[in-house]
Every structure is written in C-alpha cells, then in structure tokens.
Design a protein that fits this description.
The strands form 3 sheets. Strands 10-20-19-18-17-16-15-11-12-13-14 form an 11-stranded mixed β-sheet, sandwiched between helices. Strands 4-3-2-5-6-7-9 form a 7-stranded parallel β-sheet, with helices on both faces. The protein folds into 2 domains: 212 residues, 3-Layer(aba) Sandwich (Rossmann fold), CATH 3.40.50.10260; 272 residues, Ribokinase (UDP-N-acetylmuramoyl-L-alanine:D-glutamate ligase). Helix 10 packs across helix 18. The chain has 498 residues and is an alpha/beta fold. Helix 4 links the parallel strand 3 and strand 4. The structure holds ligand NAX, adenosine-5'-diphosphate and potassium ion. Potassium ion (K) binds next to strand 5 and strand 6.
Length: 498
C-alpha cells in the first residue's frame, strides 16, 4: 500500500478535481459515506461531531447529514467559528443549517456532550494543518480526548501527516478512517499510536491520479510483501536454497550466532554455515547440529579469519551476514574491509559489524558487495554521528540519506522499521514492544541472510525480513506477552513463510 505526504495527497486531490474533473464536493460526500460505513458498525445511539473550519470539518458536516437521515441522534460543534467556513465545507454546513440543526461553538457544552456520547467524531484538523496547534484548538482536543470512543476523520487532529509528529497536542483516536492512501503520520512517530486502528477507504479518485504521483513509499498490506514469496518446486534440494554464512560470536558471547544460525535454518536456507571463534565450538555444535561449522583461530578471544578460511567463505557463500555477537575488536575492521573489497554478492552487516564499520564508514563507497546494514537507532547514531532522538523523529529521512550517500540498503530497526535504498522506501508495521528483547535483532539477521540464500534480492529480503520478523513476534506475543524471547520469534518464521 502506498504511503503519502500531505503534499502528495494535495496533488492527488488537485489532479482528480482539475484534470479528471471530479467535483471536490463529490469526494467530500464519498469521504463522509466512507466514515458512515464504519460508524454504523459501531452502533452508537448518539454521536457528537467536532468540526474545524477547513475541508476536514466539511467531511464532518456532510457526515452529520448522513447520520441524521438515518435517525441517529447527532450534535455538531464547529471551532473556532462557523462563520469562517468556506467552499465545499460551507455548502455542507449550510445544508445542515437549512435542515434546522444548531451548530455550536461552546467548549463547555462540548465538554458535557462528550461525556454522554457513545462516539465522538474528530473532524477538526486533517492534512491541512500547518505549524503547532493553536491554543484555542488545543483546548478542543483536550475535551475530545475525554470521550468514551473517538473516530478521527482522515488523521487525528494535531498529528502531522508528513512524519507523525504531534504538533503540540493531538487527539488519541480509537479508529481513524482515511482516504485513498495511508499518510506517513499514520505509521510513524506519535501518529502511529494516536491513529488507533486505521482504515483506508476509496472515495472515487481515479487510480491514474495516484499512479501519476509516482509514490516511492510502500507499507505492508494484505498482499505486499508476502506475495513476493515463491513456491518451491517439488524436485528441488538443499543446493537450491543457498549456502549462507554467518560470521559472529566471541569468547564471551555465543548466543547471538547460535540464534542467527537457528533462525536461518528455521526460515528455509539450504545450507547454513557458522563462522566463529574455536572456543565456542562445543556450545554451537551442541545447540545447532544442523549447521556446518568453520571454527576459526582467536586473538584475545575474538575471531581471527585467516586467508584460507576467508577464501573458503568468499568462494562458497551465496550470502554472508557479518557481525552478530562478534565483539568490537579493532583488527576485525581489516577483515570487514577485505570482505567488502573481494566479495561480489549480498552482504548483511549487523550489530558489532556496524560498530566495526563505524570506524570508517567510507569503506562502503568502494564496496564490491551489495550491502545491507541493519542498525537499531543507537547503531545508526554511531554510523552517522546524529543523536538517537533525532534519528527516531526523522527515521525515513535519516535512513534514506545514508543509503544514498553510501550506496547501500539500510534497514533501520524499531517500531515502524524503515527499509530504503535511498529512493524507494518500505515502512513496516508488524511487530510489538515485546520484541524489545536481547537477541531479537540476531534472529532478524539470520532470517534475512536465509532469504538472500533462497534467491530473493537484497531489498526484497530486507522488506520480507522486517515483515515476517514482526508477524512472528506478534504471534509470539499472543502466547508470551512481554515475556517473549528471541527463540519464540524464530520458531514462528517457517509457519508464516508457509
Ligand atoms: N478534495 C479534497 O481536497 C478532499 C479533502 N478532504 C478532507 O479535507 C482535509 C484537508 O482539508 P484542508 O486542506 O481544508 O485542511 P484541514 O481541514 O485539514 O485544515 C485546515 C484548517 O485548519 C486550520 N488550521 C491549520 N493549521 C492549524 C493549526 N496549527 N492550529 C489550529 N488550526 C489550524 C486552518 O484554519 C484551516 O482552515 C483532509 O484531511 C480530508 O479530511 C476530503 O473531503 C476528501 C477530498
Ligand atoms: N516496539 C517495537 N515494535 C516493533 N518491533 C520492535 C520493537 N522493539 C524492537 N523491535 C524489533 O526487535 C528487533 C530488535 O533488534 P536489536 O535492537 O538489534 O536487538 P538485539 O541486538 O538485542 O538482537 C528489531 O528488529 C526491532 O525492529
Ligand atoms: K481529524
């Protein structure tokens, strides 16, 4: 599903009205019907609709008429003042006035009504918000937030459609009904939580209008990205599903590489090779008997990959993951540099691999390998020198800029994981805070390298990885709640891929 900014949506609406000659008021009517459809499912006895003075308010006025015609008990408020309403919104306001409805602008009356209403509809501010919410409207939002149930029209008032930031104050909706495309604000930042359950409804905009906008950002929906998964031919064998190499582990930390190996196996890789320091061989061997092992020499407990082993890896591997539990040991920078210089297939750099890379990110620029980096925000901070808070507030832009500059693919982890090659963007909405547990990143790495081995390209592997990892985490959450651990996630991979 496409994800658009407020400017994209403005252009799409404009194209529909000016080029394709659909009157704006018809779109507004269809928007109102789309909201009505959801309200009827909720079966409220009485509805309070709070409108602003722009077209978001216009949707609210049109909705009020549709509800009144169906004999619902409806109260309509307009803030700051109904005399300021113009255009299509005014047409719908005037119809209500002609029907004899009183349109109120009294905050105290709203406070009373909100308490006794089964449902409050928030049609105060939509995609047309600019700058911080004005103080008078902040008070209206506070009152709306006291409601039993809130449905926001298009986007919760106070949320920026472009990045999900709360502009000083915002409505926290139970349901948001939006039109034609998701907005960034529904799935990023505070907007993700504030939007509640989001429903995207068609309002009659010709699909050409959206196509002509050339949208480059997608999120998951009922089809994407899972329709990328290929069915296996019956007459295939392990040789068809990749030799994937996972380089990781140090004398103090064997768990990460074990989890990544298991994860690669549980998501269908044909042959999974573990490359780790010799001192953890017994543990890895006992816990992952299905893997092939390349135990390596050690320096100070950290892995040392000699030329003979490096040649085996570079020669055999269909895909490599570098970094899980490796430790941030200076000499490993040289190893990473060699791999980047000599390997010409897909390379995932994660965890300590990213910390090692942070010593000099510019080595990416001459890389022969196609690189995917999978940083969490703190690792992204090490890569870029930016602070974590800034990164989290500007996830898409930060990831895009880095990917473009260093010619790689970035998967920036966290709620609303972002995958980008610098131009195309995927924002993932599966997953939950139960996944904020040690090792859950390691199993993502194992999953992605496994998908690479099975022949998916680097971008698709990252997208599928983020999506399936989140789904598997959501399933694990059903059973274990916040007590879920990384093993619970990886054990669900095969189910969702099937
Ligand atoms: N043809 C179209 O453009 C369609 C638009 N639709 C609706 O129209 C909305 C967009 O309408 P508009 O562009 O008129 O904008 P909005 O109605 O979202 O908001 C603009 C109004 O909000 C006020 N405002 C802006 N920033 C503010 C702030 N920081 N604090 C307080 N008040 C502020 C302004 O006074 C302005 O009148 C969409 O979200 C959607 O609900 C739908 O009717 C479908 C068709
Ligand atoms: N609140 C959340 N919502 C969705 N996914 C989350 C959330 N918290 C963590 N995750 C996911 O869990 C994984 C954690 O990875 P990471 O921080 O690298 O863990 P570790 O290094 O311990 O393995 C990432 O894929 C991240 O996107
Ligand atoms: K709204």
């Amino acid at each position: 599903m496409f994800v658009v900014s407020s400017e994209d949506m403005k252009q799409i609406d404009k194209r529909a009205i000016e080029k394709y000659k659909i009157p704006g008021i018809i779109l507004m009517e269809n928007a109102a019907f789309a909201v009505l459809e959801e309200i009827e499912k909720l079966k409220p006895r009485n509805v309070t609709i709070v409108c602003g003075i722009g077209n978001n308010g216009g949707d609210g006025f049109a909705l009020a008429r549709l509800l009144l015609n169906k004999n619902y008990e409806v109260d309509v408020f307009c803030f700051p003042d109904k005399t300021k309403v113009k255009g299509d919104a005014k047409v719908n306001l005037d119809i209500l006035i002609n029907m004899g409805l009183e349109i109120k602008s009294d905050l105290e009356k709203l406070r009373e009504k909100v308490k006794s209403s089964d449902l409050v509809v928030d049609a105060v501010l939509g995609t047309g918000i600019s700058g911080e919410v004005r103080d008078d409207i902040k008070k209206v939002i506070d009152v709306i937030n006291d409601a039993n149930k809130i449905l926001s029209v298009d986007i919760p008032s106070g949320i920026s459609s472009d990045d999900g930031k709360c502009l000083g104050k915002c409505v926290f909706a139970d349901i948001t009904v939006t039109f034609e495309c998701l907005k960034f604000g529904h799935i990023l930042g505070e907007g993700r939580e504030a939007s509640g359950k989001v429903l995207v409804k068609k309002i009659g905009i010709p699909k050409e209008c959206i196509k002509e906008q050339n949208i480059k950002t997608l999120t998951n929906d009922d089809g994407y990205p899972m329709y990328l998964i290929k069915r296996r031919r019956i007459d295939t064998n392990k040789g068809n599903y990749g030799k994937v190499f996972i380089i990781g582990g140090n004398y103090k930390m064997s768990g990460a590489v074990i989890l990544a190996l298991k994860s690669a196996l549980r998501s269908g890789a044909g042959l999974v090779y573990g490359v780790f320091p010799r001192s953890i061989m017994d543990r890895v061997g006992a816990l992952v008997p299905e893997a092939v092992y390349i135990p390596c020499d050690e320096k100070n407990g950290y892995i040392f990959i000699d030329e003979a082993n490096l040649n085996i890896i570079l020669d055999k591997a269909d895909a490599i993951a570098f970094g899980v539990g490796l430790g941030n040991y200076d000499e490993l920078f040289v190893t990473l540099k060699e791999i980047l210089k000599r390997y010409d297939k897909n390379l995932v750099i994660d965890a300590d691999g990213i910390n090692i890379l942070s010593k000099d990110v510019s080595i990416l620029k001459n890389s022969k390998a196609n690189v995917l980096l999978t940083p969490h925000p703190a690792e992204m901070a090490r890569l870029t020198g930016l602070c974590v808070e800034f990164i989290n507030k500007n996830r898409v832009e930060v990831a895009k800029k880095f990917a473009k500059e260093y010619r790689c693919i970035v998967l920036l982890k966290g709620a609303s994981t972002v995958v980008t090659d610098g131009e195309n963007v995927y924002i993932n909405t599966t997953g939950n805070p139960g996944m904020a547990t040690a090792g859950s990143g390691d199993v993502l790495t194992g999953l992605i390298v496994s998908l690479l081995g099975q022949g998916y390209n680097l971008f698709d592997s990252a997208v599928l990885g983020a999506y399936i990892h989140g789904l598997a985490g959501d399933k694990a959450y059903e059973t274990y709640g916040y007590g879920l651990v990384a093993h619970d996630i990886l054990n669900n991979f095969g189910f969702f891929i099937r």
